[in-house]
Each structure stands twice: as structure tokens, then as C-alpha cells.
Specification:
This protein is mainly alpha-helical and 78 residues long. The chain has one domain. Helix content is 92%, strand content 0%. It has two helices and no strands. The longest helix has 41 residues. It is elongated. The chain starts with a helix and ends with a helix.
Length: 78
């Protein structure tokens, strides 16, 4: 069961992840335009970090649901 606080935290993580992806795209483009390979690679890394943050937000509820079921089974059969 998710609370309002959980939903706000989740929304914040999605927004932060999106911001990191956007920042990474800007860095990558700047690196391409200036010929700075290091900046380009840093931008690509930032995009990966942002996508990871967004993915965690989607995966966490499923993991919580599974772990809740497993702990319920353990308590019942314990």
C-alpha cells in the first residue's frame, strides 16, 4: 500500500532521473560540437545514471510486493 509520501518520493526520483538524462544529453551534444570526447562520454554516463534512477522507481514496487509475499510465507510456515 503506497502512501502520499511514497508517491511524492517516487515522483521526485522520476523527475531527478529525467533531469540527469537531460543534463547528460546536453553534455554529450556539447562534447560532440566541441570535439571534447571526455565531455561526450561523461554525458553518455549521466544518461545511463538517469535511466537507472527511473528504472529503480518502476522496479521497486514489484520487488517490495515479492518480498512481502515471501516474508508472509516464511512467517506462515516458519
Amino acid at each position: 500500500m503506497s502512501t502520499v509520501v511514497d508517491k511524492v518520493k517516487t515522483s521526485g526520483n522520476v523527475v531527478r532521473g529525467g533531469a540527469v538524462v537531460l543534463r547528460g544529453k546536453a553534455k554529450e551534444l556539447t562534447g560532440k560540437l566541441t570535439g571534447n570526447r571526455r565531455l561526450q562520454v561523461a554525458g553518455m554516463a549521466d544518461q545511463g545514471k538517469g535511466r537507472f534512477k527511473r528504472a529503480i522507481v518502476r522496479i521497486k514496487p514489484a520487488v517490495d510486493k515479492v518480498t512481502g509475499r515471501v516474508s508472509g510465507l516464511v512467517r506462515r510456515n516458519g
